[in-house]
Amino acid sequence: MGIKVKSIGLIGLGVLAGIGMSLQFPAVAQKITNAPLPLDELRQLSDVFGLIKSDYVEKVEDKKLLTEAISGMVSSLDPHSVYLDKNAFKEMRESVQGKFVGIGIEVSMEDGYVKVVSPIEDSPAAKAGILAGDLITRLDNIPLKGLQLEEVIKKMRGQPGTKLVLTMSRKGESKPLVFPIVREEIRVQSVKAKMVAPGYAWLRIAQFQEPTVEDMVKKINALYAQDPKLKGLVLDLRNDPGGVVPGAIGVATAFLPGNSVIVSTKGQLPESKQVFYGRREFYAAPGAKADPLAKLPAALKTVPLVVLVNAGSASASEIVAGALQDYQRATVIGTQTFGKGSVQTLRQITADTAVKLTTARYYTPKGRAIQARGIVPDLLVDETAEGDGWNSLRIREADLEKHLSSNDGKPEAAKPTMEGVHEQLEEEQRLIATAKKRKPLEYGAKDDFQLQQALNHFQGLPVQLAKVDPKTDKIGAKPEIASDIKADDKKIPVQKP
After folding, report:
1. φ and ψ at 184, to 5 degrees?
2. What residues does the PDZ domain cover (predicted)?
């Protein structure tokens, strides 16, 4: 992976504030500690506050100074802890419900520019042709250079039916690209499903939301109505950034024996040391009278299962993949996941504001740390037959500044030497040039290479593995073929064609 310089925050327009967020929603409570207040440091804060009020070139409102102080204090902890003002808190609640008004993109700040992380599937932005990696330079012909990310997001928000003109810079294009887009209420389609071959079904979860479990049940029942004797099911979690934890627990439970351990958490507070089981109280919506999973066909517990993941699979999707892998219920295929294994708890401060605070780390049923590690597939399969495409260029949790360590006692990957940096940059440029020649990947389509490898696995046919160098276990050698991989094996046994 190339060297990346990113802002520590990633904010989606109506999507999750922070990539791969997993949220818990405790009752509103004021946390009071018995630790003594650091009086000397608080005096310094007060002195700086007074200095700005008296000496700064122009007047600054008290509220602005204090709000920014709170925001800076929280965001300095890790990439996923953040202070939510009135607008951000409102967007957070909308995103969990799976609907919002906007154009449908996730954005981040990189080197002072607003960069598109990902267009949301079926959104106005996606339909207009905006791609991940595009830089937004102007909104309605107003330059964005120098603005804060929150200011840019506010400019993108608006009423349904209003038009917004985006000017974009794209690698490989000599001229700016202009996209007129009409804002609309975006309803994120959390679950998609279809038959992809006789006897084989594809189930995609794009994001874990409050309705995800019930939507999944409907889609699965529709699949079994088409073919009551399914021979295999592909659970597609690629580019799923996460979402609410109950959704992940419900999805994993659908394929596992009842009362199985799905995930555990460990943190500073007693309440953060928990074990989550495959029981109704852990995944059903508040106030639900019936178990939504009770409507699923019994055959789902034993149908052969493949889980597809990539570097964009984060947080809640890693919980699902990790649980199904630990129980050897599914074969995980794809590339190593993002590695976002921390819990964010929403603590409401006022009626309109809150703090999203990292409070614990996630662990798979076997106790494997997800944070900064991710889930390593049983079968490493590239995005295309020629290589991993844009997926090779993605940042992961371990690449983010101030990322939380895995805390599992294992050393993290060493930083590359200057020689290694040059090699990575050259490889990155080669990958960019190659990826630009390919058309955008449509998940679930006939030319979806990883999906086709999943079908090959079901049918006992050879699976084309990622190009792994046997000397270094790193991407870069000729493709290998495999058809039999064990989940706990560190090295992949291969059969050469």
Report:
1. -155, 165
2. 89-171
Among the options 123, 340, 382, 406, which is catalytic?
A: 340
Concerning whether 40 is annotated as a catalytic residue, the answer is no
Q: Is the domain of 121 the same as that of 140? A: yes
Tell me which of 326, 378, 382, 388 is the catalytic residue: 326
Report d(CA 106, CA 108) in Å as an integer: 7
Residue 78 falls in the annotated catalytic set: no
For residue 304, count other CB atoms closer than 10 A to its CB. Answer: 15
* Owner of token pair 């090295």: 491
Q: Mind listing the pLDDT tens digit for each residue in 4-31? A: 323 222 223 323 333 334 555 443 334 5
Domain span at residue 282 reads 191-408+430-459
Check whether residue 156 and residue 242 sit in a common domain.
no
| DSSP secondary structure string for all residues of 8-56 | S-EEESSS-BSTT-EEE-PPP------SPP-HHHHHHHHHHHHHHHHHS
Cα separation of the two ends of the chain: 28
Q: Quick check: is 408 catalytic?
A: no
> One of 81, 315, 317, 392 is an active-site residue; which one?
315
pTM: predicted TM-score of the whole model, two decimal places: 0.73
Q: How many residues does the chain have?
A: 497
Residue 417 forms part of a structural domain: no
* Residue where a domain stops, chosen among 160, 187, 214: 187
